[in-house]
Amino acid sequence: MTDPVLRADGLSKRYGRRTALSDCTLSIPPGRVVGLVGPNGAGKTTLLQIAVGMLAQTAGTIEVLGGRPAANPAQLARVGFVAQETPTYAGLTIADHLRFGAHTNPRWDQRLADERIAALGLEPAQKAGKLSGGQRAQLALTMAVAKRPDLLVLDEPVASLDPLARREFLRSLMAFVADHGASVILSSHLVSDLERVCDYLIVLVASRVRIAGEVEHLLATHYRLTGARRDPADLHPGVTVIEGSHTDRQSTLIVRSDTPIDDPSLAVEQITLEDLVLAYMTQATTSPRPALESIR
Description:
Distance between the termini: 17 Å
Shape: elongated
Number of domains: 2
Radius of gyration: 21 Å
InterPro entries: AAA+_ATPase, ABC_transporter-like_ATP-bd, ABC_Transporter_VariousFunc, P-loop_NTPase
Strand order of the largest sheet: 5-6-7-3-8-9-14
GO molecular function, one term: ATP hydrolysis activity
Pfam families: ABC_tran
Keywords: ATP-binding, Nucleotide-binding, Transport
Protein name: ABC transporter ATP-binding protein
Mean pLDDT: 91
CATH superfamily of the largest domain: P-loop containing nucleotide triphosphate hydrolases
């Protein structure tokens, strides 16, 4: 597959006067583990629910795996989804969940489901209501991956888990990706988790996409500049200032530049993924309608 797993053009969602998603334009390449990051209320869940067919957009277009989300049973079968609350049925056993999955999904892989449950040390006769939060999350992930999806969509599935449960969930996720080659979109506000597993990043703030691109390239083209206080307008024309702070004597800037910065008056450092995310989130609070930066 070479076509984008998700393509959106001018995608928007409004509830009366409230805008949940605004003018979202994206093209996510296949074979990536995509981190969708932003503060609470940024529009992450709205975007993902539109992508899996749970919501209809107000404006714009979206294609997932080359088709309209949830357009037919075949399209539904190609997408796995784990919602934020990692939904399970408290009164049903693990075995009941797997039987339900087999009955409702034409591509269901019972062997994969059974092997995952056994590897997790779970008893099929256990009721979901008796499981820990981490175990329920793993059951929800098992239900999603046993569909054998081409795209797996995860909406903050580890937000309420302790660090050990988060690590085990993400380890299970990456094992599935390595074995089956599915594309993944993982929403989170925990940058440290995304840094461990994602190779593509989307920053969504205040209902708008602020930047999207491959993590390696994003980090290679963003810098922290420190030096004597100066007007950011005096920097080279190819340098875009994302965030700046100033004292009486010193300026510290987070910038983007497609070419190396060679300025002996500045200390130039690479930044972390968390630095990058926070810079674009800060930019969003000071500039209400910044242009989307898209880096492939």
